[in-house]
């Protein structure tokens, strides 16, 4: 081979070697660039930073991840940017509050899935209003780089400062003004004591009371509002609601929901939610206590029976009309009675004519006693039915009458009556 040819071959070989080296270098560079690597960038914040004095509440710390990827394909992004096994610790040292649960594990936090740690916070009643800082430590692990066969793991701790506020806004607490009991099948006044437990005065206060029970009604609706002109910090006042309890309401303690709206001294409107007050409902009571000392009648005779009627309600009742119902062998030619009015606990006597037929068997029978009346709001009502036990005796019989409760809850007077032999007295109406 001549010199010229040898030189040409040498140049071709050199070019081939150089091209190979360039390809290898380029491939190596691409391979290096494709190795995924990144870092989680976790940060903490408090979305609802306001705490109320005198409460034990929950402070939610949100953890977000604004991660960055350094190299690698987007498909591998989540693997190298996700913070795993995240432990959040809250330190409120130097503030008036106490953190009851200082540490929480919240699992993994990625760019698309933030995390949340809920801390139980005790805020003393005497806590000074203002803004305070707390420290949040977040410890987590992550994959810093990942190759074809190996992964590089790392652990990191981030510390951030969050701010919360102890409010001095008006706050309210509701309590029953006394031992007032509501009763089934009655409408009653329900007094409630309202106290401003906050640090500022409140004006134009509206306290709304409602019930989730269908048995508790306020007028014609499920709620009612009472208004207060102003309420200074620490000041109390009493508001009253008219509450109607259904006849089927079980006797127990009911929780009434409440909230308050107000305006502060700066003219800023505010609202205090999640208030409540308990209302105790007593069993339904009879409208009247009904009692009789002697309801014995001899076979084939007639007599007058005096019935004592007592107002068992906590309101004045008027236009009270009594009606006695009988069935064979009992009869009555004088079965109506009238009482103009009865105050709570007041009693009056009504008299009925009662007779037994000649073929009556000597034993105890029942007569029914009903009342219609008007309550203090002028609403016409009917009472429950009272069963009056009537002892029918023979002409020569001697019988002891037990003084027992009427059916329907009305009470007979306690004691016994002795009946001696006597001829039946024929009365003008018999």
Task: State the main characteristics.
Immunoglobulin-like; disordered C terminus; 2 helices; 430 residues; 6-stranded mixed β-sheet; 5-stranded mixed β-sheet; mainly beta; single chain
Under CATH, the topology of the largest domain is which? Immunoglobulin-like
User: Approximately how much helix is present in the residues?
Assistant: under 10%
Shape: elongated
- The CATH architecture of the largest domain can be given as Sandwich
CATH class of the largest domain: Mainly Beta
Largest sheet: 6 strands, mixed
What's the CATH superfamily of the largest domain, by name? Immunoglobulins
Computed CA radius of gyration, to the nearest angstrom: 43 Å
What is the overall number of helices? 2
Number of domains: 3
Low-confidence stretches: 20-33, 397-430
Q: Strand percentage, roughly? A: over 45%
**Euclidean distance between termini CA atoms:** 163 Å
Summarize the structure.
The chain has helices at about 5-35, 75-80; strands at about 35-40, 40-45, 50, 55-65, 70, 85-90, 100, 105-110, 115-125, 130-145, 150-165, 170-175, 180-185, 185-195, 200-210, 215-220, 225-230, 235-245, 250-265, 270-280, 290, 295-300, 300-310, 315-325, 330-335, 335-340, 345-355, 365-375, 380, 385-395, 400, 415-420. It is mainly beta and about 425 residues long. The longest helix has about 30 residues, at about 5-35.
């Amino acid at each position: 081979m001549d010199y010229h040819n040898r030189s040409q071959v040498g140049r071709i070989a050199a070019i081939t070697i150089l091209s190979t080296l360039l390809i290898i270098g380029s491939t190596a560079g691409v391979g290096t660039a494709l190795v995924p690597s990144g870092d989680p960038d976790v940060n903490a914040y408090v979305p609802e930073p306001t705490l109320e004095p005198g409460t034990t509440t929950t402070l939610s710390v949100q953890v977000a991840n604004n991660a960055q990827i350094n190299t690698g394909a987007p498909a591998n992004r989540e693997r190298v940017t996700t913070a795993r096994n995240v432990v959040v610790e809250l330190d409120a040292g130097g503030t008036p509050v106490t953190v009851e649960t200082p540490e929480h594990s919240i699992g993994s936090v990625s760019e698309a899935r933030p995390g949340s740690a809920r801390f139980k916070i005790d805020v003393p009643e005497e806590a000074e209003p203002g803004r305070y800082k707390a420290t949040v430590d977040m410890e987590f692990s992550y994959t810093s780089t990942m190759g074809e066969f190996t992964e590089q793991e790392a652990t990191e701790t981030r510390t951030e400062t969050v701010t919360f506020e102890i409010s001095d806004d008006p706050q309210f607490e509701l309590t029953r003004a006394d031992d007032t009991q509501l009763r089934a099948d009655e409408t009653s006044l329900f007094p409630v004591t309202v106290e401003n437990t906050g640090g500022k005065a409140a004006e134009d206060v509206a306290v709304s009371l409602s019930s989730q029970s269908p048995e508790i009604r306020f007028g014609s609706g499920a709620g009612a509002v009472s208004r207060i002109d102003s309420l200074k910090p620490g000041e109390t006042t009493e508001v009253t609601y008219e509450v109607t309890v259904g006849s089927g309401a079980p006797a127990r303690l009911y929780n009434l929901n409440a909230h308050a709206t107000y305006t502060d001294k700066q003219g800023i409107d505010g609202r205090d939610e999640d208030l409540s007050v308990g209302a105790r409902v007593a069993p339904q009571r009879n409208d009247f206590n009904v009692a009789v000392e002697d309801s014995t009648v001899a076979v084939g005779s007639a007599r007058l029976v005096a019935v004592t009627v007592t107002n068992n309600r906590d309101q004045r009742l008027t236009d009270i009309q009594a009606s006695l119902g009988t069935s064979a062998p009992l009869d009555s030619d004088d079965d109506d009675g009238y009482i103009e009015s009865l105050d709570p606990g007041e009693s009056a006597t009504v008299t009925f004519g009662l007779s037994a037929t000649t073929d009556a068997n000597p034993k105890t029978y029942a007569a029914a006693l009903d009342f219609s009346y008007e309550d203090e709001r002028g609403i016409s009502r009917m009472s429950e039915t009272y069963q009056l036990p009537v002892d029918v005796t023979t002409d020569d019989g001697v019988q002891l009458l037990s003084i027992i409760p009427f059916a329907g809850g009305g009470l007979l007077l306690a004691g016994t009556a002795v009946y001696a032999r006597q001829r039946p007295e024929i009365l003008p109406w018999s």
